[in-house]
Amino acid sequence: MKTKLTIAGLSLLSVISFGANAAAHQVTTEQAQNLQSMGSISVSQVGSAPMDMRHELSQKATQEGASAYRITEARSGDTWHATAELYK
């Protein structure tokens, strides 16, 4: 029984880690110089943490087929807004 639970747990972890690796990641201006631009995106939300902003940008960039993004504008307060350049 323990073996089955261990195998099931490891299988779940491998699926989760694959999903994390498939997400677009944030790059610096220097790193972006070596990548091909493919447009920009923006996200906005009311009352959440900066990590939520990064998650939203990463998720939207992945949906657009980008492998990376660079934040070009970010504003925060009661609501936040961020714009990012997408890269292949």
Automatic annotation (TrEMBL):
<dbReference type="Pfam" id="PF07338">
    <property type="entry name" value="YdgH_BhsA-like"/>
</dbReference>
<protein>
    <submittedName>
        <fullName>DUF1471 domain-containing protein</fullName>
    </submittedName>
</protein>
<feature type="signal peptide">
    <location>
        <begin position="1"/>
        <end position="22"/>
    </location>
</feature>
<keyword id="KW-0732">Signal</keyword>
<dbReference type="InterPro" id="IPR025543">
    <property type="entry name" value="Dodecin-like"/>
</dbReference>
<dbReference type="InterPro" id="IPR047775">
    <property type="entry name" value="Stress_YhcN-like"/>
</dbReference>
<dbReference type="InterPro" id="IPR036275">
    <property type="entry name" value="YdgH-like_sf"/>
</dbReference>
<dbReference type="InterPro" id="IPR010854">
    <property type="entry name" value="YdgH/BhsA/McbA-like_dom"/>
</dbReference>
<dbReference type="InterPro" id="IPR051096">
    <property type="entry name" value="BhsA/McbA_stress_biofilm_assoc"/>
</dbReference>
<feature type="domain" description="YdgH/BhsA/McbA-like">
    <location>
        <begin position="35"/>
        <end position="88"/>
    </location>
</feature>
